[in-house]
Amino acid sequence: MRNAPYRPSRRSKPRGRTVVFSLVCICLAALFPSQACGRTGGSAAQTPHRDFRHAETPAVSDLRSSYAAIDAGIRVGYFGPFQSDHDTDTSAWLAAEMAREDVAGECLDGRILKLAPSWSDSPWTGGAAGLTDLIFRQQAVGIICGMDGEATHLAETLVAKAHIPLLSAVSTAKSVNLANVPWTFSVLPGDHLIAPPLAVRLSASARSLAVISGSDHDSRGFWQELRPHLPADAITLAGLWTVQGIGTEEERSLSEIAAKIVAASPDCVLVTAKPNSAGRAVAALRAAGYSGLIATDARGGRRAFLESAGDWAEGIICPFVVQPSDKLVDWFTRFESRFNRKADYAAAAAYDASCILFRAAIRASSPQEPFLDRANIVLAIRGLSPYSGITGRIEWDDLGANRRPAEVGVIRGGTLWPTPAAAD
User: Fold this and answer.
1) CATH topology for 60-190+329-402?
2) 214: closest CA among 269, 277, 276?
3) Which residue spans of the chain are classified as CATH 3.40.50.2300?
4) pLDDT tens, 150-203?
5) Which of the four pLDDT bands, split at 50, 70 and 90, describes residue 86?
6) Rounded CA separation 141/166 (Å)
7) Among residues of the chain, what percentage have pLDDT more than 90?
8) 52, 144, 318, 321: which could join 300 in a potential S-S bond, CB 3.0 to 4.6 Å?
């Protein structure tokens, strides 16, 4: 007789709690390697201790089994803001819920699909505890991360220990897929695919560049990824400034930075920061009298950036990380009609991530079985590639990153167009 798979006790809370602190420490070391190793300064493009893109990826067939109870339904966890008091923009969560409903409508065997959210304003403490609860107590079969690279790294460290698939829906941070964790997948093209075409565009349009960067993980990482692609003989760096503080302190910091940039008079300014902060940086630059070219990272396509920058966003150069199609336009229309708000690329990517994870879980399970091996979900996620999503083609490389390259677009009339010609 076949033995029943191991089912974690619903009272085994200490197992989750005991790993939270150590995992947070590991995450901090991974996110700030120079501090962890005692290094200071150094060149802009540092050589990593080990780049797993050149290492052999563990075979998914060798993944350790990890069982989740599905007798009460297939439950997927969502890690990201899902209430307005967490974040004014909860579009990614709403899109993930839309996907659950759409996939549930395809199920002919009556299986129940559930989406369980978790988030905290302090992701390194409350967020880690919430993720642990999703995985061990609520028995989620997989996790969708609807936040930035820093939150995704936290989730990644937990799923690597718990052996549960993670789909990064929003982050473009290349580092998410450099930890050699075969449980992790990224829906959007990474910064390593975004930076080269943006560098070509900037080099053709400007001879000097100033940079405004946020202090967060994704902002620093994007600039480190972009800088090696900017030829020193074609474009010079006029200065790099980091935005400091929040609220009035941030406002003062942006005003001072804008004044210095106007005095330096570079041909172009790159703004790489969180969407709201980046929008305020653009507004500060234009209000200070800067009239040159402005470019952003992929987050310039977020609704939060477009609303924060307002009319100042006109003409900004921005990476375009989705593939334009009638299917995408129809989905944007359906989303706006239902929720009375506009969606952006992050919401569309969260929809794709949710569809992929639910469909993979259905493919990997049987209505007659009360347990589901999460390792089989990873195999099913791999088997769905290449996947035709509303954001375009999703095809995993060996480390779970999407192979599809990004384009460069421009903002016209409050909308990001894939190419300047498309906006004419």
Assistant:
1) Rossmann fold (3.40.50)
2) 277
3) 60-190+329-402, 192-320
4) 888 888 888 888 899 999 999 999 888 887 788 999 999 999 999 999 999 999
5) low
6) 10
7) 66
8) 318
Q: What pLDDT, in 10s, does the model give residues 102-148? A: 999 988 777 899 999 998 877 777 888 889 999 999 999 999 998 88
The C-alpha atoms of residue 220 and residue 213 are separated, in whole angstroms, by 7
Rg (Cα) of the chain, in Å, rounded?
22
List the structure tokens of 261: 């940039």
Cα 117 from chain centre: 17
Give dist(CA 28, CA 89) in Å, integer: 26
Strand 317-320, strand 407-412: pairing: antiparallel
The pair phi, psi for residue 236, each rounded to 5°, is -105, 150
Best CA proximity match to 119, nearest among 161, 162, 90: 90
Q: What is the CATH number of domain 192-320?
A: 3.40.50.2300
Helix axes 326-339, 345-364, angle to 10 degrees: 100
Mapped onto helix, strand or coil, the DSSP state of residue 322 is coil
- Residue whose tokens read 């920061």: 273
